Amino acid sequence: MSGFRTIFSHDLRVARAEAGGVLLAVQFFAMGALIFPLGLGPGSELLGRVGAGLLAVMALFATLLALDRLYSHDHEDGSLDLLLTSRYPLWGLVLGKVAAHWLVTAAPIIIAAPLMGVLLQMSPAAIGGLVLALALGTPTLSLIGSAGASLTLGARRGSVLLALLVLPLYIPVLIFMVGTVLAAESGLALEAHLSILAAMLLVALVLAPWASAAALRLVGEAS
Questions:
Q1: Orientation of helix 19-40 relative to helix 46-65, angle to 10°
Q2: In whole angstroms, what is the distance from residue 41 CA to residue 119 CA?
Q3: What region, left, alpha or beta, does residue 62 occupy, with left being phi > 0 and alpha being psi -120 to 50 degrees?
Q4: Residue 203 scores a pLDDT above 90
Q5: Is the pLDDT of residue 177 over 80?
Q6: What pLDDT does 201 receive?
Q7: pLDDT recorded at residue 193
Q8: Bigger pLDDT: 130 or 27?
Q9: pLDDT by residue (tens digit) across 24-41?
Q10: Helix, strand or coil for residue 187?
């Protein structure tokens, strides 16, 4: 846990110094939610029905937007070599970086989601379901994205490759995030959807740090 805390606090300090980059994800999320109603009209009944899917997709792309910075700075300034030769387990350092990435990108999105839901005329029950879905789904997106970011680190057009690699893996998470919101709006039980999202998170929590660490070692050996 010492390695986790060290890299977590380091990445938070870096994020604080690059406040503009940190705010980019939540700005993208908010702008997408604000611009979309202009196409349908503010009084359209479609807004409430499509709001869940729209906000889930915007959260997905906002998370993806910040993934290419997850390891790129470490690779460029040589810090990656220090991580690879650290006395701490590499998977713990990866978890620290993923936790910091989630805190500075997804957490503000979760906080902003209720306001965006009100603007999209979603019901209070649907907004509550959206917050729960984002709270369980976005950590999985960050963990999967970590594996993709490490695999494409240093590659030409790495951001394009990253999107192509992780988007198919994001689809199941997106489906059950939207399903949670729709179930909440319909007054149905949420346990099934939330249990599947939690199971996805546990699987990603076990596999993604190991996969990311293995890919980072390959990058370190290649360089």
A1: 160
A2: 12
A3: alpha
A4: yes
A5: yes
A6: 95
A7: 93
A8: 130
A9: 778 888 887 778 777 766
A10: coil
Q: Which two tokens stand for residue 34?
A: 């604000």
pLDDT score at 223: 58
The structure tokens listed for 99 are 């936790």
C-beta neighbour count of 16 within 10 angstroms: 10
> What average pLDDT is seen over the chain?
83
How far apart CA 140 and CA 144 sit, in angstroms, is 6
The CA distance from 114 to 98, in Å, is 24
- Tell me, letter by letter, the H, E, C secondary structure of 60-101: HHHHHHCHHHCCHHHHHHCHHHHHHCCCCCHHHHHHHHHHHH
| DSSP state for residue 45 in the 8-state scheme | T
Residues 6+ away with beta carbon under 8 Å from 164? none
Nearest to 56 by CA among 216, 171, 155, 212: 171
Q: Please list the helix, strand and coil fractions of the chain in percent, rounded to the nearest 5, in that order.
A: 85, 0, 15
Question: What pLDDT score was predicted for residue 2?
Answer: 67
Give a three-class secondary structure readout of 102-168: HHHHHHHHHHHHHHHHHHCCCCHHHHHHHHHHHHHHHHHHHHHHHHHHHHCCCCCCHHHHHHHHHHH
Residues 172, 200: contact at Cβ < 8 Å?
yes
